Amino acid sequence: MSISLSTAASLYDRVRRVIPPIEWPAFTDDIDAILALKRERNAVVLSHNYQTPEIFHCVADIVGDSLALARKAMSVDADIIVLAGVHFMAETAKLLNPGKTVLIPDLGAGCSLADSITASDVRMMRQRYPGVPIVTYVNTSAAVKAESDICCTSGNALQVVESLGAPRVIMLPDEYLARNIAAQTKVEIIAWKGHCEVHERFSPADIRELRKAHPGVTVLAHPECPPEVVAEADFAGSTAAMSDYVGRHKPARVVLMTECSMSDNVAIEHPEVDFVRPCNLCPHMKRITLANIRAALEENRHIVTIDPGAAERARQAVERMLAI
Ligand code: 13P
Ligand code: SF4
User: Fold this and answer.
1) Mean pLDDT of the 33-59 span
2) How confident is the model at residue 149 (pLDDT cuts 50, 70, 90)?
């Protein structure tokens, strides 16, 4: 059944594996209100894979990793996009939909990577390495994207770097993503010093302990994890790539070295797989709730705007990525 025709009562079956019956009544009023508001206002909810299951499985129309959300945002046929994710994702949706209203339910939903670099830092790197192309992770502000040649996500970073045909590439701002890509290519990568506050906390020792406690467990890691963690994992990829891996390989037991809600959301799709769940919470992603999604639709807040001085160049950097 499509989400738009559902009611909260008909949705509980989807999430019963991860939301206990005692917690469910706390969500139903907001879910029904959001489903009705979406119809009234011709709105869609885009949800990142790190959103909690009552958002991801019960009110979202479009779900995915940063790359999928950017791609799918381009073909949205609605007046309003509510971005259940963090601010840079809402900015990307706005860049690709300048004529639509894009709402983010909490303006404080930021990202430690986006906060690690400014537009003037990017200009400084361009001066320091003249002629070296600059690839910027989508986890950045529009102002930073505007100073870049092309964007990438964790899902296409290697492809983007190699598409440039350059011997050296600057990759900003995630040092670990840059080093993880450097390990897979002959292109020399110049990195920045940004880190994801969620993924930098995983260590190789965590993986060794997990393997000891759960013999045979398959370990999947996000490429924002330190390279030493990726080296000990069985597979590294974007949130969508980790989800696809579970679907394709159906490991008996798996651990996702990433944000906590990922395991809940993927476990719902694969009841036959046992998920071991050490994880780290992203405090920014967790600022988005059913209550503030409902308020966003009721009060038309918070409207995402982009500095006109940066918008066109930032859009070009995103569109170059999407054209690959
Ligand atoms: P993905 O593009 O892999 O979904 O990652 C986004 C993100 O913020 C990971 O921390
Ligand atoms: Fe940013 Fe890390 Fe949170 Fe993703 S998980 S939004 S990279 S802080």
Assistant:
1) 98
2) very high
Identify whether the C-beta of residue 45 lies closer than 8 Å to the C-beta of residue 34.
yes
Could you tell me if 288 and 51 are in contact, meaning their C-beta atoms sit under 8 angstroms apart?
A: yes
Atom of ligand 1 at shortest range from CA of 138: 2
**Residues of 12-26 as b/e, b for ≥16 C-beta within 10 angstroms?**
bebbeebbeeeebee
pLDDT above 70: residue 289: yes
pTM: 0.96
List of domains in the chain: 8-110+285-299 (3.40.50.10800), 112-195 (3.40.50.10800), 199-276 (3.40.50.10800)
Among the bound ligands, the one closest to the CA of 86:
2
Q: Which of 139, 177, 258, 318 to mutate to test the pocket of ligand 1 (most atoms within 8 A of CB)?
A: 139
Question: Residues enclosing ligand 1, CB less than 6 A?
Answer: 49, 65-67, 139, 153-155, 196, 222, 224, 238-239
Residue of 46, 48, 260 to test ligand 1 pocket, by largest number of atoms within 8 Å of CB = 48
Would you say 24 and 56 are in contact if contact means Cβ atoms under 8 Å apart? no
Query: What pLDDT shows up at residue 278?
Result: 82
CA of 195, nearest ligand number? 2
pLDDT tens track for 178-202: 999 999 999 999 999 999 999 999 9
